[in-house]
Amino acid sequence: MTSARPELTHASKTLTFEVEAINERGEAVPTPIAGEHPLTLYVDKREIVTLMTLGQAPEALAIGYLRNQRLVQSIGDLAAVQVDWETDSVAITTRKPLVGLEARMTKRTVTTGCGQGTVFGGLMEEIDSIKLRDDVTLTEDALHALLEAVRRHEAIYKEAGAVHGCALASNTADGVEILYFIEDVGRHNAVDAIAGQMWLDGLDGSDKIFYTTGRLTSEMVIKAAQMQIPFLVSRSGLTKMGHEIAAKLGITMIGRAAGGKHYLLFTDKHRFRKTVAPTLVA
Hints:
By secondary structure, this protein is an alpha/beta fold. It is built from seven helices and 17 strands.
């Protein structure tokens, strides 16, 4: 997988900017705010979409967007991903022309996505083909460890607010480890950037945990399922359609997970194991 990596720029933007604000006492105070930049994706010189992004991981974002929209089938399809912030664009060159691109772009579903809002090519009809592992479990202790680890990673949110964060974490006998943590102005950008980085690194998602500060809508659930991720955790809530798709696919979905002992387990309860207090022996 790594031998097929495309040629990449490394064009992360400055993530926060300082402006003057007035506090409750009428004082001028220098205050950091989050960046936001348009990034237009071109595939073989054809314009695909313009995303509004923080700019933390633009190459991974572009790759993950194409992956999650099913516009490319593998990382090996891509020869180069070149970000140019002078033109606010990313030029993606394929190794051979993409099959069916025109047909996929003609069918779009309006969604609740932050900064995106469309799904290409009938992803809703493709969920029946997604099969997840059924031999992995998530413990309550692992969930608590994940929430604590995420709290330490939210750098941009703590400094400037106005962003969503998404994380991919390992889930092994050795414990939970944050593998990727991406913050962006929209939660869909953050999950797409993680999807792109997983492809670049050849990382399997079938035993991993996905965390988001945002809500779990149908599109967010489908994107996680396409990455074969069986466990979804949200600090926020979820939608009816997101719940239905997770239940159908056998995804363990946990919402309202704001830290400490507070969470709600919504779907696929048999793969979640609560911590059982040891029995006291007299």
